[in-house]
Write a structure and sequence with these properties.
By secondary structure, the protein is an alpha/beta fold. It has helices at 19-32, 59-74, 92-102, 121-134, 164-177, 199-211, 226-236, 255-259, 264-267, and strands spanning 7-13, 35-41, 44-45, 48-49, 83-88, 107-111, 138-141, 152-156, 180-186, 216-221, 241-244, 272-274. α3 (92-102) packs parallel to α4 (121-134). The longest helix has 16 residues, at 59-74. The chain is globular, with a radius of gyration of 19 Å.
Length: 281
């Protein structure tokens, strides 16, 4: 099985490190034999950054805390895996993108409530942009996430194109964890799996069935919003991971949901991996 992950990047709020995100990233690194990069970001507001002395007594105190975090987590990475530490200032999205490209990052791991971006539409579009700009999947976690055992992975499939890149990552993870992959789409007015609107669902199913031994299911469900249907189905089957494309697959329906930043990735208690399709898709 081809190795997809070699370097995991964890952007860390230097004023409030998300320990559970770092811990989960280290566990992922152990499972996939990857290096971990902790990128400590200065709090940034508008066109300026806030000096860390607002949160720390002095530079020595700041360095001691970073060394403490390093010491806690390096013990869980067996050689030759490495834990890299960097401190950067600047506009967070630009800093993360630049670091990811320069250091050949394969996967970004973020906390669900981590304020890397603004809230609302800007937060959602920021994760979309980050996935597209870096070419990396963005895995969004929360404190109760547990990726030690992944038994069910849910992936929506739309009616406009075959999501090959997303399918590649979902299948890779399903193989690695020996889990079942659930392909979900909207049935609309049709309830027949062979209906024309389901052609990409069927193509995805046949690709997995004919080329892998991953257990796979096809599900068509009535509804109008693919994000809401995916999230509800994932809850029903007690999924451990949801894999989506950026865009409408993450947008929950309704004005209230959008006003209050209720997107799939930050409403779900289940980890969500956002995988941008190739530019030409």
């Amino acid at each position: 099985m081809k190795k997809l992950f070699s370097n995991i990047l964890v952007p860390v709020d230097i004023s409030n490190p998300s320990e559970y995100v770092i811990r989960e990233a280290v566990e992922l690194a152990r499972a996939f034999e990857c290096n971990v990069h902790l990128l400590f970001l200065m709090p940034y507001y508008g066109s300026r950054y806030t000096h860390p002395r607002k949160w720390f007594k002095n530079e020595e105190d700041l360095n001691q805390r970073i060394v403490k975090i390093y010491s806690q987590h390096i013990l869980h990475l067996p050689p030759p895996l490495r834990l890299h530490i960097s401190i950067e200032k600047g506009r967070h999205e630009n800093v993360v993108t630049s670091y990811a490209i320069k250091n050949y990052i394969d996967l970004l791991v973020l906390g669900r409530t981590y304020p890397l971006f603004s809230t609302g539409w800007f937060m959602q579009s920021g994760i979309n942009r980050l996935s597209r700009k870096t070419g990396c999947p963005v895995l969004t976690l929360q404190s109760r996430s547990n990726l030690d055992r992944v038994r069910n992975i849910v992936m929506p499939v739309g009616s406009s194109f075959l999501p090959l890149r997303k399918l590649m990552f979902a299948t890779y993870l399903a193989k690695k964890y020996n889990s079942r992959l659930h392909l979900v789409t909207l049935s609309g007015k049709q309830h027949d799996l062979d209906a024309g609107d389901n052609q990409y669902l069927l193509k995805a199913y046949r690709l997995i069935r004919d080329n892998t031994e991953v257990p796979v299911e096809c599900i068509t469900l009535p509804g109008e919003n693919i994000a809401a249907i995916t999230l509800q189905y994932a809850k029903d089957v007690k999924a451990d991971l949801i894999v989506i494309n950026p865009g409408k697959e993450s947008l929950l329906s309704g004005l209230v949901n959008r006003l209050f930043s209720r997107f799939l990735f930050n409403e779900s208690r289940i980890p969500v991996m956002t995988v941008a399709p190739p530019v030409h898709s």
